[in-house]
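Hi D.,

Good news: the full-assembly prediction came through. Inputs first.
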Amino acid sequence: METALFFIMAAVAVAAGGMVILNRNPVKSAFSLIVVMLALAILYMQLSATFLAIIQIMVYAGAVMVLFLFVLFILNVGVEGAFSPKLFRRIIAGLTGTLMGITLAAAIIFRSGRLQQIAAPEAGGDFGHVEPVGELLFTKYLLPFELLSVLLLVAIIGAVLATRPKWPVAKLPPELWPGDTDGAALETGEDE
Amino acid sequence: MTLTAYLILSAILFTLGILGVLLRRNAIVILMSVELMLNAVNLSMVAFSRFIPGLDGQVMSFLIIAIAAAEAAVGLALVVQIARDRRTVDVDDLTLLRG
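Then the structure:
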């Protein structure tokens, strides 16, 4: 059962991951990426990382991918020109990527003799639940955790500043411009 | 399942991410491929934390998820600004820094 679930989820993740890079339409790529993340969440459940699986669905599939889709929809990105028109460039890029993949796989397979000796112990009790994970996060990993909050703050400020338009997008009509000390414009607005 | 199987799956997903970064021209799809690579790393972290018992791998995954969210926010903000300025998100057209 566990083995079957692993292979099904692995197949789903790899197929959807392939769709991310092969789909010419970026919106379809985004949806494929959501499928990858959901499949990985199920694998996390199987690895008894329950809390992380929930966070994966909430933060990745819920928040990050919505942000991606949101940007795709405002920019109205077209379908054409997904890959480079130059065949040579595509071949070089594909070969480089495949070579890196082969290197990774070779590193794992050459070590697999040793890796096989590591058998998963029985996951008992609350392994991967909120409490033990949170305890570790707030004791041993307190400094990275706090630094992360600073990083998130910087990211918020950076994102807001980077997307700030040079002038207000929605201009106020002249009769509502500030500087009207007696507020006559606002009063006429109310009368109508 | 064995640890090797999880690591191989992680390597495959990471490779797909690399291929996406190298092959695609759309800046948003490139950012998505980077997310795919981060997810692959997360999978190997969680697998190690299960097989070599200890929750450190899972905590590390939390930190990676948060960093990925920040990276996506800033990256997409930059893409939006580039699209506004240059009317394209095609990385082949952004050659201002080419010597």
